[in-house]
Automatic annotation (TrEMBL):
It comes from Heracleum sosnowskyi. The keyword Transmembrane applies. The keyword Ribosomal protein does not apply. The chain crosses the membrane at residues 6-26. One of its GO terms (molecular function) is iron ion binding. It comes from the Eukaryota. Keywords: Membrane, Transmembrane, Transmembrane helix. This is Cytochrome P450.
Length: 148
């Protein structure tokens, strides 16, 4: 009786462990590969991402190579250029030359949020209403007539 209960608990533990390993494998590997395969079928290609960090290490490598090859980027002898994208995002320039105008890249498993933030332009409904009320509060609305 005790032996069968112990073997039942052990088999339950092994099956849960197998399910957990399968889920982690699917979450880390297969979901991203399926999504990338769908995009590649549509003609959208990009650099191959790493398992956990995505393309972050490649971005840092390209940026350090760019800064090492062009030390005049941060010199004060010349007036600064208005094209700051080549300094801040050299990986985007390299990848757009390599993969075309539209390409994919990964920033890892952590959600980075929207690129434009959650401002009045990019939000909708409740968040927009709350931000609008915060910016133009009631006392400010009352005194607007005096300013005009």
């Amino acid at each position: 009786m005790e032996q069968s209960l112990l073997s039942y608990a052990f088999s339950l533990f092994l099956s849960l462990l197998f399910c957990m390993i399968t889920y982690v494998f699917f979450d880390l590997c297969l979901r991203a590969k399926v999504l990338l395969a769908k995009l590649q079928n549509q003609g959208i290609d990009g650099p191959k991402p790493g398992l956990i960090l995505g393309n972050i290490t490649e971005m840092q490598k390209i940026k350090s190579i760019k800064l090492a090859s062009d030390p005049s980027v941060f010199s004060l002898k010349e007036p600064p250029s208005l094209d700051c994208s080549s300094v801040l995002f050299p990986h985007f320039i390299q990848w757009s030359k390599q993969y075309g105008k539209t390409f994919t890249f990964a920033l890892g498993k952590k959600d980075r949020g929207p690129l434009l933030g959650k401002g009045l332009i990019t939000t909708n409904r409740e968040v927009w209403s709350h931000q609008r009320k915060t910016i133009a509060s009631k006392p400010q609305k009352i005194y607007t007539g005096y300013y005009i």
